[in-house]
């Protein structure tokens, strides 16, 4: 059990006054790894001892590092005493449990084993992921995947949104009349976003809109008007004003996407590589060995090499 499991409930209430005065923390881009306790040194003073179990400054810092960002933002003068007090409680409970030999119970041993395995999995993944999340690694990924490549296509469109198909057909006929002012008709007839701006939606990417609307808008050329298009919001008549290819986003704007892609890719690659190299034996429900699975058939099964060419 991590110390924060016991620390968190009381800190949530006790730290509220300090949080109200503190500076809000910056949003985390990736959950931080728990800080490893430092070895006891002169710079790592002893802060408490409970039944012979020491609590040093590094232990307190490690416990604080596991707390949610909104709690870590509290002043250290407020947070540290609360954490130390809760760690004393934790150590006392652990000592009492050991005195009763609860660690020898099969159920407890099984739970401890599962917790150890989970921590080892996380430690391995952190070791593999960390080099992929450095600024240098992320900039290299940006140069490979984003920089210098054309951005997404965007469409600038207006629309008129009405409740039913009959009204949409009337609107379509009206905006197709020679000299019709689409924006003016949108201001008087539309019930959707941008009505006051003449139905203007500005430039948007395909993924910004619901599929039905996006498919229609991106299939049109500038100046064209659509037939009535149904979406979950109602019936639209769309006019495309312009199309363009957006510039590639900057490194700073892409950072969150890059970090998430590197994280996901590294986790998947690590799992696949280690799983492939592991010796796996499967058994049936009754514990008997399962027959080895045959590899999937190949188009080359039974094929023979081509004859050697004569010179």
Structural account:
It comes from Pseudoroseomonas ludipueritiae. Residues 31-42 have a biased composition (Low complexity). Helices cover 46% and strands 13% of the residues. It starts with a helix and ends in a 34-residue tail after the last helix. It has helices at residues 3-14, 16-21, 57-65, 69-72, 76-99, 106-129, 135-145, 165-175, 182-189, 211-218, 251-277, and strands at residues 46-50, 53-56, 153-162, 200-205, 229-231, 234-245. A hairpin with a 2-residue loop joins strand 5 and strand 6.
**Strand content range:** 5-15%
- Helix residue percentage: 40-55%
Strand order of the largest sheet: 4-3-6-5
- Tell me, briefly, the overall form: elongated
Structural class: alpha+beta
Low-confidence stretches are: 1-38, 299-311
How large, in whole angstroms, is the Cα Rg? 31 Å
Question: How far is the N terminus from the C terminus?
Answer: 74 Å
Could you spell the SSE succession in H and E letters? Answer: HHEEHHHHHEHHEHEEH
């Amino acid at each position: 059990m991590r110390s924060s499991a016991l620390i968190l409930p009381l800190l949530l209430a006790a730290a509220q006054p300090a949080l109200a005065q503190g500076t809000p923390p910056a949003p985390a881009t990736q959950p931080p790894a728990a800080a490893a306790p430092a070895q006891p040194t002169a710079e790592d003073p002893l802060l408490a001892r409970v039944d012979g179990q020491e609590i040093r400054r590094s232990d307190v810092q490690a416990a604080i590092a596991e707390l949610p960002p909104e709690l870590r933002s509290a002043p250290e003068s407020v947070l540290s005493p609360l954490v130390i007090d809760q760690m004393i409680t934790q150590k006392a409970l652990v000592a009492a449990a050991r005195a009763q030999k609860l660690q020898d119970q099969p159920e407890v041993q099984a739970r401890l084993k599962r917790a150890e395995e989970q921590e080892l999995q996380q430690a391995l993944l952190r070791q593999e992921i960390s080099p992929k999340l450095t600024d240098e690694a992320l900039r290299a990924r940006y140069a490979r995947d984003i920089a210098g490549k054309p951005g997404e296509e965007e469409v600038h469109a207006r629309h008129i949104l009405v409740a039913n198909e009959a009204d949409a057909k009337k609107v379509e006929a009206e905006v197709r009349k020679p000299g019709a002012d689409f924006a003016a008709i949108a201001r008087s007839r539309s019930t959707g976003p941008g009505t006051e701006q003449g139905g203007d939606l500005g430039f948007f990417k395909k993924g910004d809109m619901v599929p039905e609307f996006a498919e229609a808008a991106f299939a049109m050329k500038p100046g064209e008007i659509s037939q009535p298009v149904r979406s979950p919001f109602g019936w639209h008549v769309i006019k495309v004003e312009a199309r363009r290819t957006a510039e590639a986003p900057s490194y700073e704007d892409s950072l969150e996407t890059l970090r998430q892609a590197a994280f996901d890719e590294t986790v998947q690659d690590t799992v696949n590589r280690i799983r492939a190299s592991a010796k796996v034996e499967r058994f049936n429900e009754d514990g008997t060995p399962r027959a080895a699975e045959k590899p999937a058939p190949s188009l080359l099964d039974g094929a023979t090499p081509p004859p050697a060419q004569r010179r």
